[in-house]
Amino acid sequence: MIVPTMNSYRPGIICIFLLIIITFSFSLFCEAKTVVFKKGDTLYRIAQDNKVTVDILIRVNNITDPTRVREGTIIKVPYVYSVKRGDTLYSISRENKISLEDLVLYNPGLEKSVLKIGQKIILLNPVERPDNKIENTRPDDSRILWPHGGKRENMSGKLNGVMITGVPGDNVISVSEGSVIWAGPYRGFGKMVLVQADDDLIYGYAGNDRILVEVGQKVFKKTPIAVLGQSSHDGAAKVYFFIYLNGKAQNPVDYLCNNY
């Protein structure tokens, strides 16, 4: 039997690493969350899942006919800010790192109105906040096998991935059957394991201190593949979980819930 070597996977691995690093570098300065309109989707469902109104989705995405959104359309989902006592346009702009011009652009008439407590304001450039947490975002989320059982939250911006909080020394398990195509350190992510499944999906597990598998090894669902480490930046222990298909990052929550 010929055991795959790391070199045989190198071009694809390099592309994935570049994608991770580039998107991670810009994740704090990017636009709203995006959702790909899939077969069977409706704007109402997307709005409900993301706690916004259909009218907001229509306005932000310049949709002329909400009944004729085509499959594959990328839908921007903005963060909707609720005005608090003492807020001003300037303080909202500064707190959320968005220009006054953009606030007015996506909220027509805002500059002429007096802010009211509870008033909703569309932000297309939100900073990471607790609202991005994704536990139980779908009724069947509990069926999904995750690499760690800790608290999950979206990685903000265009970096499609999930951060899972754990404790240093916890096991990280594979969520799929497949072959290990990378097992080693990577700058900014501790030690990383990449597992390629038979359907060509590549699963990435980063943030590890110790790796329990090697390149070419066959793994199965629930196989321990790594031991969680601790970040040198903030001391936190987090699994960084990614899914790639044809070199493009997938949203793990959406993908696993729709394809489990």
Structure, explained:
- 22% of the residues lie in helices and 26% in strands.
- It is an alpha+beta fold and 260 residues long.
- The strands form 3 sheets. Strands 5, 6, 7, 8, 9, 10, 11, 12, 13 and 14 form a 10-stranded antiparallel β-sheet that branches. The protein has a two-stranded antiparallel sheet with strand order 1-2. Strands 3-4 form a two-stranded antiparallel sheet.
- A hairpin with a 5-residue loop joins strand 9 (191-196) and strand 10 (202-211).
- The radius of gyration is 20 Å and the shape is globular.
- The two termini are 31 Å apart.
- Residues 1-6, 22-31 and 125-140 have low confidence and may be disordered.
How is the topology of this model organized?
Elements: H1 6-26, E1 33-36, H2 43-49, H3 54-60, E2 74-77, E3 79-82, H4 89-95, H5 100-105, E4 120-123, E5 152-154, E6 162-165, E7 171-173, E8 178-185, E9 191-196, E10 202-211, E11 218-219, E12 224-228, E13 238-245, E14 248-250, H6 252-259
Antiparallel strand pairs: 1-2, 3-4, 5-6, 6-13, 7-12, 8-9, 8-11, 9-10, 10-12, 10-13, 13-14
